[in-house]
Amino acid sequence: MNVSNLRQNPSLQTLDSSSFRRGGVEQGGLKGLFGKGGGLQELIKGTQDLLKSLQAVEKLMQGMKTGGMQKAASPSQGCSPSPFSQSSFAPSAGKAPVELNPSASGPSSMGGTGSAGGSSSVGSGAGISGDAKLGGGFPSALGQYKNAIESAAAKTGVPASMLAAQIWQESRGNLGATSTNGGNGLTDTGLMQMNPNTFKELQGKYPELQGKNLADPETNILAGAYYMKDMKEQFGNWDLALRAYNSGPNGVDRSNPNAIPAGTGDATYVQKVKQFAETIASGKGTLPA
């Protein structure tokens, strides 16, 4: 310490031992200052508490400036509105999916087909595997083909009642029925009115059909069932599969199974087959002659 400073500052000359004791220097020197319970730790803790208090005051002031305190207290303010409207995630409205396969304990729940001009979805097909057994309304005119229909249903997963309904719609059970295909001009034949080009493609995919002829009723039914299976896999539900069967895969409007955008097929085909399938599965009603 500079001597001249002592002379200029008499107060420094009067420092006694008690002053050092109060500063924590005499007892333990620096050890007393920095040791356990020392004054420096208490000073640091006090400074931290003060900073926390200042931060809390700052937040409070900011909230008062923006009116945040009143908004936080009001339940009507809530959170910021979502950029998406609620309807964006709502399930699409419409009729309930239609079950095609009949229940073992009662009539099929396939009802609700409505008029031919309406649009009724069969469903996504995620849970529809089809019943391989025919219901009590199976027409006697198709009796000789019952085993073939149930066998094809079991192999392909296409509901047996729907296959029977398609046979009724396509040929009324007449194995020798023929018609001219509106898409390629070729002759569709047999119970399922199978097109020769389509049958050739199916033979390349399903070895069971190779070496067979469409004049054979079992082959004709199985080929039609395999085609329905393929169309269901392609379009996702039985309604659109029926539309593809009637109008071809290029004649399907995914938003409306009753539409015929390509101009080929029967606009009422899907509804007719579903109505026939309901009659066959439930045993209620009659099929048209």
From TrEMBL:
This is Soluble lytic murein transglycosylase. Residues 1-23, 66-123 are annotated as: Disordered. Residues 1-20 have a biased composition (Polar residues). Residues 148-256 form the Transglycosylase SLT domain. Residues 74-94 have a biased composition (Low complexity). Pfam families: SLT. Belongs to the transglycosylase Slt family.
